[in-house]
Amino acid sequence: MKIGIFFGGPAREREVSYAGGRTALANLDKGLFEPVLVFVDGRGRFRLVEPEFLMHPSLRDALPQDKSGFSVYDESLDQDVLEAALPEIRPEQFRDHFDMAFLAMHGPDCEDGAIQGLLEWYKMPYTGPGLVGSAVGINKILQNELIALANGQQKKTATISRDAYEQADKAQFFQSLTEHLGLPIVVKAPHQGSSIGVAIVREADLAQFCRAVEQCFFTMSIRPDGWSKLSEWSDLSAGEKREMAQTMVSLDSGISFPVVIEQTGEVIHHPNDFIEKLDALASSGSSITLASLNAEDEVLFEEFISGQEFSCGVIQDDDQMAIALPPTEIYNVTSFDFESKYKLNTTKKRIPVETTLENNRKIQLAVAEVFTRLGINVYARIDGFLTPDGRVLLHDPNTIPGMSPSSLIFKQMAEIGLNLSNSLTYLIRQSLRERIRSGKDTFHLKRLLTDLDAQLANRKANPLPERVISFGSSDEEFLAAKQQYNELAASGVVRPSLMYIKGKAESHEIPVYLLFKDTIVELEIALSQPRHSLLIETVEQTAHITARYI
User: Fold this and answer.
1) Can you give the residue ranges of the ATP-grasp domain (predicted)?
2) How far, in Å, CA of 110 to CA of 95, rounded?
3) Positions of E strands within 46-195
């Protein structure tokens, strides 16, 4: 079966998606699937690319650049720049190139039902939840309401539209929010993923509050008493202006290009043009507002929840029963924002949550119930808090979890025995199963599923030859062995296993669930301890699913 790996996209999470495309390409089982790479550019066009396109440190490094000295995304370049290097394919041509779309994209247009609807129109099956679950999973305001209906949880929230915020007395509005929600206040852009557009206001500081709200609207006010550093534009040096213009490109910390000057309607696509416009506007002394062309029109405010933060994946079986994976606790972090998740090494994680067995079960039951009641299928990751008084408060169902090799969903699937390659195979097969239920192009999809199941059954009946990978007691050897393991698992030619040679008289076969340990010290601690009861329970509950792939 040919699998089109879709990555990139117009959303702010495209760098995360770029890394996910690389993971999918590297770990797709080549004995079952043939990968075809589809880069979705910033304007939403589909382009066939070669594997070399994914070998750069970042998406910006992979894209053609101009001679300005700025590093930009393709929306800042002339529209024909990509045409020469990356051939475009139209949706009606998809079936000429692949049998199924593997979605490794995130955020608006990518996991909100938009790309899913387009693919359904062209009768192209895709991975992940369907239209209903995707639409719910991207809308944080709707999620709060539906989760409360599903399980009765109570969490204080408030929202405001952009127009209402601009007309409001900011000080009075902030005071009313603090009276309702207390401090700190969590401020969220309601349609973003990867914790982009999330800020926490910890003090009764009006300037800090206004900066947080503008950040989540993806706007920037430039006025003498403005909240933005751009208000100091006239006092900046030429080098500082270039540095700030480059920061504006950033998709996780800037409002990103293209931006519109709301007072004039002028659209700025490039950092060079941005500097010229700001120079001209600053000399006039007028107040202006910059907004992303994809700015949010509402902002969500939530009370700050004190408790143990967790993230819990959910998968389902052929009968659509949802089964929660072992929850991961995220600790040693003040805010689980984009920088904490992807750029800092301070955030710590452990499986399961450091609490009682009963509380871990409570988390799993709550997550599985919300997954089902919100109309999500195939798989998802749902985040939440376990409060000191034992309540489980859920938020942010993520219908296309991040797909780096160390992503939480893959760590949790390893706990039930599925390695990276097995996990991707599960995702493809279960997605086919769910697309059949939609009643569109049913005969064709059933044939794809039957062929895949026959291949999986044949592999069970005729196991691949085993390849043992041995490693010693250094972290470097452990890392190299894990990389080799993943490469061999994805080759579809052999069945790898890891053997830790601690000494002449002592060796250990390493189970899949220990592949995500980072150091030999962590590995030895895990080998010396009994498995947590919750992990054993979850392995038993999912055995009828994993038996197909292991």
Assistant:
1) 228-429
2) 20
3) 46-49, 88-89, 100-103, 157-161, 185-188
